[in-house]
Structure formats: structure tokens, C-alpha cells
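Forwarding the complex inputs:
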Amino acid sequence: MSDAVLRQPIRRQKEEGLKGIRDIGLDDAALHAFLSETWKTPKGFSGWLTTVDHKLIGRRYIVTAFLFLILAGLSALVMRFQLASPESGRIGPDLYNQLFTMHGTTMMFLFAVPVMEAFAVYLVPLMIGTRNVAFPRLNAFSYWVYLGGGLMIWIAFACNTGADAGWFDYVPLGGPEYGIGKRSDFWAQMVTFTEVSALAVAVEIIATVFKQRAPGMTLDRIPLYVWAVLVTSFLILFAMPAVMVSSTMLILDRLVGTHFFNQAEGGDPLLWQHLFWFFGHPEVYIIFIPATGFVSSILPTFTRRPVFGYLAIVLSLISIGFLSFGLWVHHMFATGLPQLGSSFFTASSMMIAIPSGIQIFCWIATLWGGRPIFATPLLFVLGFIFTFVIGGLTGVMVASVPLDLQVHDTYFVVAHFHYVLVGGAVFPLIGAVYYWFPKITGRMMSERLGRWSFWLIVIGFNATFFPMHILGLQGMPRRVYTYPLESGWGGMNLFVSLSALVLLAGFAVFFLNVLASLRNGRIAGDNPWNASTLEWATTSPPQPYNFARLPAVTHGEPLWAEGDTLPAIEGLRVDAREVIAGTVADATPQIREPSADNSIWPLLAALAVGATFLASIFTPWAVVWGAIPVAITLIGWFWPKGTPEDEE
Amino acid sequence: MKPSRSLRFVCTAPVLLVAGCSEWQSALHPYGENARTTLSLILSFAIICTIVWILVMLALAGALLRRRSNAEGLRPPLETDPRRERGFTRMVGSAVAATVLILVGLTIASFFAGKSNAALTGKEMLTVRVTGHQWWWEVRYQDASPSHTIISANEIHVPVGEPVKIELDSGDVIHSFWVPSLAGKRDLIPGRPSEITLLVDKPGVYRGQCAEFCGYQHAHMAITVVAQRPDAFDAWRKAQLADAVPPAGAQQRRGQQVFLSTGCVLCHTIRGTPAGGTSGPDLTHVASRQGLAADTLPMTRGALGAWIADPQSVKPGAKMPRVDLGPDDLNAVVAYVGSLK
Amino acid sequence: MSSACRERTNGIARGGRCRRPGVSFGAAFAIIGLALLLAACQRESRPFETPPPADASNDEIAMSPNHPGPGGPQAASSARWEKYEQSAYEVAEGKRLFTWFNCNGCHSKGGGGMGPPLMDDKWIYGSSIENIAASVREGRPNGMPTFRGLIPEDQIWQIAAYVRSLGGFVRKDMAPSRDDSLSARPAENRLPAPRPQQAPASPLSGQGKP
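Prediction (whole assembly, three chains):
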């Protein structure tokens, strides 16, 4: 780019009295040069630690979450190894208890929620046409806190201090008298870590979606995935505090001798259950709703038509969000609560099947009215419908109190929740990986390996978990490290354990596909699937600044409506990080909002917070002394930069 | 609602075929009023849910496999046929309406089944108090006269055909009382006593298991319910009231001596002897029970020997320690305890 | 990262020459993890298998004589038995047994009554775990029964470890937390640390054999 070409538009800007260098009149090359420089993450270690680029953070979030998936999956395989035959004696009860607790805890807190957040962090700014999330440094902070919590509990597990009272850690078993040692303390603090991380992401997603949408992206033009993630973020906002409160109460009971859960001194063990499940039920919807967003993104692309029933799906998402807070007692039907109260929760648990059903019917209508292209992402969506509906229907079964009183805490429930979580969230997640891999990495995944992974996973999953329905009805309880020979459950357990190997093979093929495609995958263009949402208007992988000029939107499926020429916005600075902030409902642009630069403070703050949490497992003084480094890092973080905010 | 016998057979048969007919501790083989009502509910729910799933899969298959014209294939993505869209609206609407109706029906069925199960409460003639411990069940038959209280462990006897109230409490952590062939489960929460009513219709031995994770040996905490005809039950109760059988023969006498002079006496009670410990199960009539160590082992001489010699190898983590007895002492104790019918 | 990696545009690896930073971090993590695994925390061990029965070495440790006179209790420690104090499980088992075997009957919850308090700094027969175990095993004048042969050896040491926690000798992260019953005193992990004991004025009489 020659100076002459550059000087002219810049001089014109100066004549108009505009501060900084804007993108008005700049040609593509100049634009790319300026924006790359402004939005870049420096190469090397320091760049890695200080980046606030949502794409880099989202990617590392995804990789970390999948590593935890592998760890939790291996725990499950060891469990199946132990349960393959009656009284096998391969693993003792103490290790088994730690294994199933670590499996559940890791899957729920360290894989399922973070991976959904990770995709949201990556995709939302691209889908709504902005350059970064609303609070980029908070984003970085949330990743480091999550990593810290996950490392803490797994290193504890390596030190024989893995949590061992179940992923739900019921008191009194996980309480101060019966929860011996520090195992439950590590569990409770890990919960605090991951919930701080989740709340941070929820807050920034809400702010981003409300305020930073592309001009013209009114509420009824927001992609369904973004709606799903928005609803999820509100769920996180209201559900996570409940579990943070309960885990903090637990640590106080164990460390300091409070009596929140001590019956003899006026506390109540049932309080734990209420607080935990008030979080625990929305938690599974926090995992499931983004997966419905994946399905709503994949379907239009592979049926070549918009999703049927946009309004119905949005309203379903919102009503699932509200309803999910009214179901929690269905985890407590066996505790002896009054029958009338329990029946209310039966009714609400059944009711939530209605909006879920609406979504399924709309998706089937989409398939009916479109032209299906059977690529791997669509295969996983079909697998999702096949599997999730089974899980949803067994959910209707366990919603009934008398039915639940027979199958609660048995393998029937294990089958149910794996069907809804794996079928309902993991299958769409794998489909999403196949779908967005070209955008994230610039390469296509192998279709052949994709099909292999699909069939192995779906067949392996159903063979592993369907027999568990029958095992539960035959009387096999959960969380047992072994079972007697006379039970007659040995044959089916062996079948389940062997099928788990098929499931393992399917995941192995999937990970192989990812790794091989990273090196040798076919180079993807900007929009290999010919999809309709804004992220496919960027390069693959996207530039650090996402869009050279921020797009404006005139339709719910912008790339299909506008074709090759998207309308774009001019006027943002290219020498400083800026995004557009607009109104909530109409996305009418209001101001140019500065966006945070790379910074080391999120990492330092996360270290300070992490150290405080970790030390508070051992002494309450950690909170007092730990407040000092936390305060210092927060002061460094918020110290004013001195750049006047433009209000033009 | 109670489906006819033939319907019940038709519905359970395929399940049984797949299941391999394991009756050992199964909700699918009810012998109690509560479990029977619940099984009807399970089967009706299962049938309806299966039909719903099949219909959804048929719709899905139809969507994927229906023949599409060439014109349809070439249409640009945003051009949707308004007539077809209206058709979809009607179909989705009717599917949602059907879903609502089915769910309302299922909710009502569930409510009435629950009500029917609850109707047994209040008519019980017999009350048994069960206290859960890590990892055994303390069983108490209260009586108006305190000297007629029976304290036992891990095994409940009930008369057939009469509702029996089981009062539930816990001595340490949360447990759950669950005998699948008789009734649904109820949690034992420390400090929050609750109750469950059993009505057994056929004499027999029914196994249940703790159904709330309670620590290392949660897997080995079984409870046995023995249902007997009323006259047999009365005879059993009378026998349980008696003090322990005095030792017969030199070996059993030596066994009693060893029992009373080593650690056994610190935790166990044998009525009729000085042994009065209450931390562990009451052993007055231990040999009359079906199983040992909460049905982890059968009640046989060999199992008794293995259990007393080293409980930790059978139930690692159990609260019963290994007491180092020489072989003669061990045999003597086994002979004595095995005689406590 | 090598200069070949600078060819990357935000993530596309060309020709497989670039290794993502995640890989080297993963290796470091694995090595650290392995090292920690090998040094598994003893605090959390759950030794269900009972150790071999007591041998004569118990009697070889010089303990306090059972009669008044010159020479206070002698503290002697053998590493073999220190493990009880460094395992949260053993101390917690001791707490359970303290209640089950009715130590509370004379010692309340460490506050004493008919028997001396166990939470104060006065240890008539010595405060080391061997001394306490000997007190339980042998009994003591003025009413402390002997439990030799009644309580298995392993459990005597567990009880002794728990009594140590009542005295505040056990590290805070090993000591038990509050129990789920009426709160009679602060939890063992909140009891104050013990004051250092006076050294014995003159050598012990009756060395070697009790």
C-alpha cells in the first residue's frame, strides 16, 4: 500500500475533524493492515497469556473442555471395567467412589457447561457481527479461573484427594463429620471456581448480545443459536449463585464449624439438597439449550431452508428457561416431602416437555420442507433427535412420583440422564465441531471418518445405555462399586461394559479426525457449507478483527438474502479497538464503544483469586490475606487508561 | 388402573426376554400392593412413550425419505412455499396439542397412582422402626410393653396381607429403604424421620438394598423382608423375644467366653449374656437370619468364619475391625455365633 | 515456536511443522501430575486392611511408670505409629470409636468429668501418641480401665490419634471437623495449639519394661 493511496483518505478524515484514523475511504489492503495491527495478539508466550481475542480464548476453552471430557470418559471406562462382572474386586470401594464422583463432577462442571460457553464465546461475536465480546478481559479471566479449578481438582485426585461423595456431595456424607479429609473441600472450591467462570461468561454474553449486535439485527433477526445462548446465560445468572451459596456453606461447615446442615443445632441436611438442585436442574438446561442452538444452526444449512417456526422456537427457549427453575424437587421425591407439593413438581416436570416438543416438531418440519444434505453435522443432528426423544420420554416417566420412587437412584435414571445429556447435548456438540471446524481452523474434517465416528458413537451409546433402563427396573442401584452374583445382572453389565468400548472407539475416531484434519484437511473457503449466518462472511479462520467493516443486517438469514454483497458500516477507528453499541431491541447504532486491549491483568487476577480459593480450603484466614492480591490485581485491571471516550 | 393379567403378561414378556428373567430384586415382579400399582404405571407410561417415540421417528423418516421434485431441489433457500408452511403450522400445532393431552393424561394417572399408594397409610396394625447405619439396618419392633421390644438387624418379618408401617430414621448419613418388589423407596434422613407402608400379598423372602449413596459399602447394604402367614409371624416374633440360646457343648462355651472377653462385646448385644454393646447389630438371634453382614454373605458356617476372621476383606471400610483370634478361638466363636438361632 | 510457525494465519498449520503451545504444556502437566501421583498424600489414605498385630516393640518404648515419684512421663516416638496422626481417616475413626466405646462417659467430649480433661495442657502420663496408646491399653490408676485384648491394637492407635487431636497436636488439615450433633466445644480442627510441655526433671526410672 503506497503512502499516496493512504494519505488521501486520512487527510480527508482530518479535514472533517475526526479523531484517530477511521476506516472511511480506506481500501481493503490498508484496512487489513491497520486492523490487523490494532487487533492482533502478539506472537509467542506473552501474547498467549495476555490475549483478549474471543476466538483464541474460545479455542483454548474448547480444547481444555475436551481434555476434561477425555479424563472423565476414562474414569467411566475404569468404572465399567470394575462393573463388568459381579464382585469383580478389580477396584476397591474408595477408588471407585472417587472415580464416579470425578466422572460426574468433571462432565458436569468441567466439560458440559464450559464447552457450551466456549462455543458461545467463539461464535456469538461472529454471528452478531461485532469484533469482540463486551468484556474481553473478563473473558480471559473466566478461562484462567476455569483452568485453575479444573487443574486443582484433578491434581487433588492424583493425590488421592479426589472428591468421593458423588457429584452432588449430599450432606451429611460430604459434610464435616463423615466427609473425612479434604476431598469434599476441594470439590466445593472447584464448584466456586467454575461458577465464577460461568457467571463471567454469562454476563459478557448477555451484554454482547443485547448491545453489540450488527445494526439492523432486530430481535427477530437474531440467529437461533444466539437466542439459545442468551437464554442460557440468564439461566446461569440465576442458577449458579445457588450452588455457590451451598458450596460456600459447606466449606464454612467443614472449615469453621458453622451449622448450616447440622440438624442438632438447627440446620437441615435437606437444605443442601434444595439449594443444590435449585442449581442442578437449570444446570442440565444450561447444557441442553445451547445444544438446541447448535441444531437450529446446522439444520438450515443442511436442509437449504430457514428453520420452521422461528418465533415458536424462541418462545420455547424462553419458556424452557423459566420452567427449568420450577422442577428441582423432582430430584427429591424420595425424601418424604408432602404428596401435594411433589405432585406440583410432577406437573411442572411434565410441562417442560411441551416446549422441548415444540422445538423437535419444528425441526422435523424444517427437514420435511427442505432438501437434506447428509453431511456429518446433519447425521449427528439426526442422531440427536433419535436419542434425545428417548431420553425426554424416560424423563416424562421419572417425572411421575410413584414411578420415580421405584427408579430413583437406580440405573434407570443413569440411562435417562445419559440419553438426554449425551443424546441431547453431546451429539449436537460433535455435529457443531464438524460444522464449525472449517471456520475455526480453515480446514475441512474428513467426511469418511465423520461417518465412521457417527455410527460407532450412536451404536455404541445406545448399546451401552439402553440396557441400563432394564437394569434399573431389575433393582440395580446407582453408585455401587459391585453387585452380587445372585443378582443375575452380570450378563447385562458385561454387555454394557463391552459396548462402552465401541463408544470409546467412536470418540477415538472423532478425535483422530480432528487431529488429522488439523494437519491435512482440505482447505476450506470462507463459506464451505453455503450457510446463512454472519460468521460465514469472514475468512476461515477469521482475522483477529473478524470483519473488515462491520456488517449491517436486513434479514434473519443475511448471507442468503444479500448474497455476495453485505451492507457494511463505515466510521469506526482502525488505530484503536472499537465496536458498535446499539439499542437492545432494534440494534440501532448508538455509540462507538472502545474494546479492551490485550492485558496481563486477567491472568494475574485469576491467579490471585485462584490462590485465595485454594488456600481457603485449609484456613479461613486465606480469605482475609488473599483479598490483598485480589484487590491489587483488580486495581491494575481497572486503572483508567487515559484515552478519552469519543462520543461522536 | 390395573391392566388385565394377559395384558400384563404381554407387556412384561418382551422385557423379561431381554432381561433374562432376573427376579431377584426386581420392580418388574411385584409382590406388594405399592409395587403392583407402580408397575402398572410403569408399563402404561412405557407403552405410551414408545408409541410417541415411534410416531416421531416415523415423521423424521418421512421427512428424510420423502420424494422431492427437481424443482424443489433447485429452489433458492429463502423461497418457502406458503401453503406448505401453513400445513406445517397445522401439523406442529396438532402435534403440540396431542403432546399436551398426553402429558395431562399421564400426570393425572400418576397422581391417582400416588394417591392409591398413599391410601394404605393409616391402617397399619404393626410398626417396625428401621434405623439406617453405615452399612447395616437396625430393626426394632416396638411394643406397648417395653420388655416385648425386639431389636434385630438387616431382616424384617412381616405378616402377609396386613399393612405394616416402617418408620425410618438414620443414625449417620442419608440412606434409602428400597425393596423393589414391594414398594417404592423412601430416604432415611438423619433428624427427619419418615415412614413407608408395606402390604405384601404373598409369603416369601424379598430383597431390598440401600438406594442412596452412603459411603464405602453402600453396595453391600441389603435389607431382607420375610413375609409370613400371620400364625408363622406370631411364632417368629415369640421366638425373637426369647433370650439367646445358651451354648451347647465345650466348643460353644469356649466361643461364648472368647466373645465376652475380646472386642466383640464392645459393640454387640446378645440378650441373656453380659454382652450389651449397641454400636453394632444385635446378635441374639443372628443365625436365624437369611444373610450375614446385610446380606453380603449367606448365613453359613464358612461365611461366618470368613466374616469374623477378617471383615475388611469382605466389606473393605466396614466399621467392624479385624480381631486377631487364633484358629481354635475363631472356630469356637463361629460355632457359638452360628448357634444363636 | 520456530519461524516456520510464523507462516500460520491464526491457526492453520501448514505441513505439520508447527506444534501448538498446548502440546508442550500438556507434556509439562503430565510430568508434574506424575510426580504428584507418586507422592500421593498420606492424609487421604484409607487403609482398610488392618496392620499386623502388636508385637513386643510396644513394650520396648519407655513409658511412664504407673506409680507416683520422681521422673515425669517420657516422650518417645516411633515412626511406625506416627502414621496414625497423619491420616485424616485414622483420626476420624478414632473419633467414632471415642463415642462408640463410651470414652465420653468419663472424659465428656474432651472436657473431663470423672476422668481428666483431654483438651488441656496437662498430660499426667505423657502426651505423645505412644503414651496415650499405653494409657488406653494398660489403664491408669484412679479409674482408667485397661482395654488390652478388648480393643484391637489398630483401633487403640486410632483412638490415641484422636485424643492427640483433642490436645491440639494434630495438624489442622488432618484433625476432624465439627460433628453433626450438639456442639459442646469447638471442632477439633479449631482447638488451640498446645503449650510446649516442661522437660522431665530427672531421668525416668523403670526403663525398658513397664
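Residues 80-198 of chain C form a domain with the Cytochrome Bc1 Complex; Chain D, domain 2 fold (CATH 1.10.760.10).
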